[in-house]
Amino acid sequence: MLTTPRPVPAAAIPSGKASLTSWIAVLAGMIGAFMAILNIQITNASLLNIEGGIGTGVDNGAWISTSYLIGEIVVIPLTDYLSRVFSFRRFIMTNTLLFALFSMACAFTHDLGSMIVMRGLQGFAGGILIPMAFTMVLTKLPKAQQPIGLALFAISVTFAPAIGPTIGGYLTENYGWQTIFFVNLPPSIAMVIALAYSLEKTPMQLSLLRQGDWAGIVTMAIGLSALQTVLEEGNKDDWFESPFIFNLGIVAAVFLAAFVAIELTVQKPLVNLRLLKRRNFGIGVLVNVLVGFALFGTVFILPQYLGQVQHYNAEQIGNVLAWTGLPQLLLIPLVPLLMKRYDVRYIGFVGISIFAASCFMNITLSLDSAGDQFFLPNVVRAIGQALVLTPLSSITTAGIAPSEAGEASGLSNMLRNLGGAVGTATLATVLTKREQFHSNIIGQSVTLYRDEVRQRIDDLTQYFMAHGVADPAAAHHRALAAIGATVRRQALVMGFSDTFAVIGTLLAIAAVVLLFARKAGAGSGTGGGH
């Protein structure tokens, strides 16, 4: 997740080697990017504990992650504009402090409503830190040293989602779920001190508030929030059979249509939609959306499987997911070297294909598929992801002028984050529908007309009677319930297999689409990746 505020003119970019002060600013920015992205996924392995702590059910618990994501989606296109209004230094330092404060506030919530509000505000502040970190790479480092800064940024934004559930799971199991919201405090304090020392003071430009595309801002915020609510609640409420979902869907459609119309007509749009007409940018954005679907989807589905089917605790889930991040620490620094020697389209194609292959490795899940069986697919997935992000950014931003970089990156990454949000909601629906489908198919075979089924019921009845159930009728009832539970569990496993097949198929499509882009050099553009 990245958006790049408008770069400074080339004359303002330093030449030679960056000073120690500049590197302090860049590294402080990386801390912010790492924390912001870490907090998208840090709750995933601990959702059951958090849901119990605030007294909500599994159906509503996904809002703990979704509300954070909505905050980020809304603020990404605003970062360029607001950083110019309030000054870069003041804006990033203020939001660093707000990010830590809203994070700690989450630990003191006692109901779902207050948790959703605090996570949304935390996401709004955190979403600002990611693009501003990338901006410092472009403005504080000379051209020759920018690849080093970009490698640091890539490590931050790809390692954080994978390690987030690991950190969250460990803290939850050993110290309680509240502690996962306090981990941001020490880094935030260190970051503010470093930024106060290393960033120069610049005046605010409050006069720019009068020039803002406020109609676009309002319609975008309402439309995206309504759309995400429809996606999140639709599966639980039977989609448009629910009056609430139906009405909210109309709100989303009306406001997003108004947003598109406004952006195509105003002189200074918040989001320049006309950039999508450009071949590389349009293709890059489409692939970004599909990759975002897969990135968020895999980190959502795997913890759900381990928790629901294998009954892993938060720490065990985190340990399984850690192997998605660790190999990337070694591989990402090598990608710029590959980009100097090979066509970036082919590197991206190979990376997305490997990512897809890792998903297809999980389409034959069984009741025996647990942590050890996910080790190899997770390592393969890590290799693929490491090869995707930087080449895709180079392709997307090829031909984008420096004056358009903020607009292009904002649009690209807003849609990628939205793709991730849509992916999570879509996969939850696919899982539900496919579980029902497989349950019906299996149920047609598990009938009392089959001798082996009747024999199994008799065996289970005798088992329960031998273990404390004196009433034969009660033992028989428990035997039927046990068989029903086995059928549902097997159907659930097959449903999870189908979700991985959906992700793999979309990634395969993305890999092919990427080849239709024009050739781009390794150093093309100014955009970033996640």
TrEMBL record:
SUPFAM superfamilies: MFS general substrate transporter. It is a multi-pass membrane protein. GO terms for cellular component: plasma membrane. It is found in: Cell membrane. The chain crosses the membrane at residues 20-42, 91-110, 116-138, 150-171, 177-199, 211-231, 243-262, 283-305, 317-339, 346-367, 499-517. Residues 25-522 form the Major facilitator superfamily (MFS) profile domain. Keywords: Cell membrane, Membrane, Plasmid, Transmembrane, Transmembrane helix, Transport. Its main location: membrane. GO terms for molecular function: transmembrane transporter activity. The keyword Transmembrane applies. It holds the Pfam family MFS_1. Gene3D superfamilies: MFS general substrate transporter like domains, Multidrug resistance protein D. The keyword Transferase does not apply. Belongs to the major facilitator superfamily. EmrB family. This is EmrB/QacA family drug resistance transporter. The lineage of its organism: Bacteria, Pseudomonadati, Pseudomonadota, Alphaproteobacteria, Hyphomicrobiales.
